[in-house]
Write a structure and sequence with these properties.
It is a single chain. By secondary structure, this protein is mainly alpha-helical. It has one domain. Helix content is 88%, strand content 0%. The chain contains two helices and no strands. α1 runs antiparallel to α2. It is rod-shaped and about 75 Å long. The chain starts with a helix and ends with a helix.
Length: 72
Amino acid sequence: MARHKAILIAALLLALPALGAEGEEYLPFLFAAFAVTWVAFFAYAFFITRKQADLKQEIETLRAMQGEDDDA
């Protein structure tokens, strides 16, 4: 979904010169692209961190199971 927003913003930025927009009129779109980019980055970082924690927990569980099998 964030990718679609980024594509839409890029399309709007490319269409603005044809509409006669200049200078400071671009700033809201620049800010929107900037904000969407950072939100997407932090969402990605959050999900990667969460996935890493899940994998770490799964590895610890497997190591514990392997330790129990070695004891038996």
